[in-house]
Amino acid sequence: MDNNSDGDEPETKKRHLLNSVSSTMARSSPSPPDQTPVSAAVLQYQNQKLVQQLDVQKQELHVLEGKLKDLKDKQTYYNDTLIEVNKLWNQASELFI
User: Fold this and answer.
1) Between the CA of residue 70 and those of 41, 78, 80, 94, what are the distances in Å?
2) Three-class secondary structure assignment of 49-93
3) Mean pLDDT of the chain
4) Where are the compositionally biased (Polar residues) regions (predicted)?
5) CA torsion sign, 65 to 66 to 72 to 75?
6) Residue 43: what pLDDT?
7) From CA 58, how far away is CA 55, in angstroms rounded?
8) Are 31 and 37 contacting, i.e. CB atoms less than 8 angstroms apart?
9) pLDDT at site 44
10) Could you tell me how far CA 46 lies from the centroid of its own chain?
């Protein structure tokens, strides 16, 4: 019986070792087998396009920030005008009371 258990033990260790190695190799592979690798030229092209899109968005953001500033300035002017009209209204209403 000792010979059987000794004979089984190395086989079990081999299977465990093979499973460990294959799982380690699977984890360290650069890309999953179902995905194709992308070349550096494709990545560079995509990066260039993204940089261009970013530049366009930055320009649009700058334009929108300018418009927002103009609107805030107009709102401040309208608020100041409303405050003055309210003061004059209160003064006029006191005269008639």
Assistant:
1) 44, 12, 15, 36
2) HHHHHHHHHHHHHHHHHHHHHHHHHHHHHHHHHHHHHHHHHHHHH
3) 80
4) 19-29
5) negative
6) 96
7) 5
8) yes
9) 96
10) 17
**Whole-number Å distance between alpha carbons of 24 and 3:** 32
Q: DSSP secondary-structure letter at 30? A: S
Query: How is residue 45 written in tokens?
Result: 């092209």
pLDDT 10s digits, 47-93: 999 999 999 999 999 999 999 999 999 999 999 999 999 999 999 99
| One-letter identity of residue 15 | R
| Residues 6 or more apart whose Cβ sits within 8 Å of residue 31 | 37
Q: What is the CA radius of gyration of the chain?
A: 38
pTM, two decimal places: 0.52
Give the integer Cα–Cα distance in Å for 32 and 25: 11
